[in-house]
Fold this protein.
Amino acid sequence: MQRLRGSDAYAIYSETPTSPFVTLKVVIYKPSHDGDMPDSNDIRHFIKHSIEVLGAARASLGIMRVPLDLHHPVWAHVPDFSPDDHIHEAQLPSPGSKAQLCDFLSELTAVPLDHRRPLWETWIVKGLENGRLAIAFKIHHALADGKAVARLIERGHSHTAAKKNQQEESTEATLPSKPQLIAGALLDLARSYTVEFPHYYRHLKQARRRGAAVSEKVAKLVAPFSAPFSLLNAPGGNHERIYRYETFPLSDFKRLSRAFECTINTTIIGVCSEALRRYLQEIDALPSESLVTAMPMGDEGGSGLKRLLGSDIHNNNLAVAILPLHQNIIDFAERLRAISHSAQAAINHVRHEDGRRFDNYLDFMPGTAIRLINASMIRRQKRKENVYANVVISNVPGPREILYAVDGRLQMEELLSVGNLMDGGNLNITVWSYVDKLSFSFLFRKDPLPQPEKLLRHLQDTVAELVAGLPD
């Protein structure tokens, strides 16, 4: 029995009927050789083998809440776990178009996972046009962040990965009783506040002294809860989602980043900024102040702190940088320079926080306090006050080499990632690369945003215009 770390537990506490906190990783395959499509048994065998390579024991973990949320939930092996119970199949109606796949994935993102079972499932989606199929991995965010999943997907497709001889501990597992959960929570609380927190406090004092020397170099240009209220945060809608994606040549974004002398990540944020500006302007909903994005990034600062929560499982290693999209700057090159400056300043700020970020405190906060914080954020938005951020834009580099599955019979063609929508947010943009492709995934909350597909058209137009303006 191991306790969830604070950042993983946050994903459990933040889940609501209208925010399932699930993420999808979707792999689209084509047969390596014409007419050689593996059957369902072969594909299931590949999925189960991948689970063994990645760690069958982890796949059998479910979570158990502590009564009264005295402390964070615990990971527990689910008795009689079988991977087959988590592998499902679906057949798209003819012709199996991209829009039909997106509609199917929209429904998947809206349905929460059962916390009494391991928090994942896999869908084999057949019937895609041009003789293709997709495998959709539906995962609770408590299990992994984007970078971790990208690494796992690559490992699962590696032909050189050795098969681990692991026993599925869940076959002999027994779930802890309520008295055991309470006793474990009280013991971990005592250890946490008497041993870990003093160590953590000393670390903060040292970090504060180090931070004083660099404070002049670190500009926190935008603070959380300073974003203008916009239609992207408007209340309304339910658990239903609309998912759409668009894929571009990665080479185009490399050329753009060279031409504008910025990173690919800055270019991605810039084209999203322009597409959002055009969309909101078209529907007469563009706020006078610039929109603000929350940009997940790899854990920086505080990750080396000693932890005594009785767990070596830490699935989410993310920090969040807050930066403006600078939509008040019309010239695109100038806007990219402003975004680049803001992004670097926000990243530096996260790094120099060194243990003083909100997620660093989560290990010491009971679930009730976290839920109250989330409820307070929602109340602010209902009053149309300044919100935490208007939109989440994340960018995760994917595999750089072509990957194969089912003994090389399937070739990975596209790799998509779909982020979660928290209550109070109506749009999540998740960007993943794979070999020479860059895929933008858009998850909309159904109803609050009128004709959200128009945003994709504006993204296409923005990229096309920028690429057309590049020198030969």
Confidence is low (pLDDT under 50) at residues 159-171, 212-220, 300-304. Residues 193 and 308 are 10 Å apart (CA to CA). The longest helix spans residues 178-214.
